[in-house]
Design a protein that fits this description.
Blueprint: H1 3-15, E1 24-25, E2 35-36, H2 42-48, H3 56-72, H4 78-87, H5 95-114, H6 126-134, H7 141-148, H8 153-165, H9 174-180, H10 183-195, H11 202-217
Antiparallel strand pairs: 1-2
Length: 218
């Protein structure tokens, strides 16, 4: 874990420390009994948290643990965790809590772009992070702007991977498709190929560039 991530995780822990973590969470009286908090099966808990198990304060109390595990392990689904935060209307929370969540996501994104392949457990690639971040309701535009301003080989390799795996016909990903199909992205991949033409990943950059060329002619 890089230093920036460690700092923001400590801040998340500090901001949400006033919400006590309960060992057993109340269940929906009509559909589920009380549920023990099992740190060894956080995925199952995250599926129900804030819905049939626990309330908003329980979501807040568990955020430091969930955010830490999303960085350090692959046991959690980022989209599930962040959609829970959205359902609990995080944009109505105190400003310090909102800022801690924003800072965490920003740091995760910057860390992901700095290394290829990703070492962020819940986010093995850029597409997975962007899909999860969209669940917050804030959109993904600010993350794409950071990508535009991040000129390191790892960020270019993430870009090539995204282009290669992206479904350009999927209407649900239209905003990302529009961003990818800009001339600036194609030029960036060409420049990356020219820079890294002797590297083992050069063919990936070239393939992604060819895909965008075909999209522009379609």
């Amino acid at each position: 874990m890089d230093e920036e991530l460690a700092v923001v995780l400590a801040r998340v822990e500090e901001v949400f420390a006033s919400y006590p973590r309960r060992a057993v969470l109340d269940g929906c009286p009509h559909c589920r009994p009380a549920t023990p908090v099992d740190e060894h099966d956080l995925f199952s808990l995250s599926l129900r948290l804030g819905g049939t198990v626990g309330g908003r304060d329980d979501v807040k109390s568990l955020l430091p643990l969930l955010f830490e595990r999303m960085v350090t392990s692959g046991e959690l689904d980022g989209s599930i965790v962040l959609s829970t935060v959205a359902k609990e209307e995080w944009r109505s929370w105190p400003a310090a809590e909102q800022q801690a969540i924003k800072d965490y996501l920003d740091a995760v994104w910057r860390s992901l772009l700095k290394e290829f392949p990703s070492r962020i457990g819940a986010f093995p690639d850029a597409a997975t992070f962007l899909e999860a971040a969209a669940m917050t309701g804030d959109g993904i535009e600010k993350y794409l702007a950071v990508w535009d301003a991040t000129f390191v080989p790892a960020a270019d390799r993430h870009l090539a991977q995204l282009v290669t795996e992206h479904d350009f016909a999927d209407a649900r990903r239209k905003s990302l498709t529009v961003w990818l199909c800009r001339e600036e992205v194609a030029d960036r991949l060409i420049s990356a190929f020219e820079r890294d033409h002797d590297a083992e990943w050069a063919d990936d950059l070239a393939t992604a560039s060819d895909i965008l060329s075909r999209q522009s002619r379609a």
